[in-house]
TrEMBL record:
Family: Belongs to the Fur family.
The protein, known as: Fur family ferric uptake transcriptional regulator
Segments passing through the bilayer: none
Stored InterPro entries: FUR, Fur_C, WH-like_DNA-bd_sf, WH_DNA-bd_sf
Sorted UniProt keywords: DNA-binding, Repressor, Transcription, Transcription regulation, Zinc
Length: 159
């Protein structure tokens, strides 16, 4: 996996980059700091709520979901559903509309695939697919490719 530079990751997660109409409450600031500090993490709402409470920010479940959903709707986070139907949120891996994730079917860890040149063919194929959809009058704003299988740790334990 490629490490992201803090400047590219946190730029979209600053308080001054919030979507129009979203207030910079204590909970919002804490959530932005939390996800910016661990940009490769896949966060469930329960994870976020528990982490915020550990940080001393008392926020209820509904507020947590609203904040995450608003940030996802604004493109600041990527919202996806894993194989166990658990909604997870993550920092977009790049400015493009393609998000490639790999989920382990054993431990359910979700990883963003690295953005190396090795993925250029996949990105090109997906761009062609999105162009085809646009040619049909559709306007996709985001796409996610989720691959499933065993991660390296689980695979080595299954031999």
């Amino acid at each position: 996996m490629s490490a992201r530079t803090p400047s590219t990751t946190t730029a979209a997660l600053r308080v001054d980059a919030l979507p129009a109409g979203m207030r910079a409450t204590r909970a919002t600031k804490a959530l932005l700091a939390l996800v910016a500090a661990q940009p490769d993490m896949q966060w469930s709402a329960a994870d976020v709520q528990a982490r915020l409470q550990k940080m001393g920010v008392d926020v209820n479940r509904v507020t947590t979901y609203r904040l995450l959903d608003r940030l996802a709707a604004a493109g600041k986070l990527v919202k996806s559903v894993d194989s166990e139907r658990l909604t997870r949120y993550s920092v977009p891996s790049r400015a493009e509309a393609l998000h490639v994730r790999y989920e382990c079917t054993d431990c359910h860890q979700v990883q963003a695939l690295d953005e190396s040149a090795d993925n250029a063919q996949m990105a090109h194929a997906m761009a062609q697919y999105l162009q085809t959809l646009q040619g049909q009058g559709l306007a996709p704003s985001q796409s996610e490719l989720r691959l499933q299988g065993l991660c390296a740790d689980c695979k080595s334990g299954h031999r």
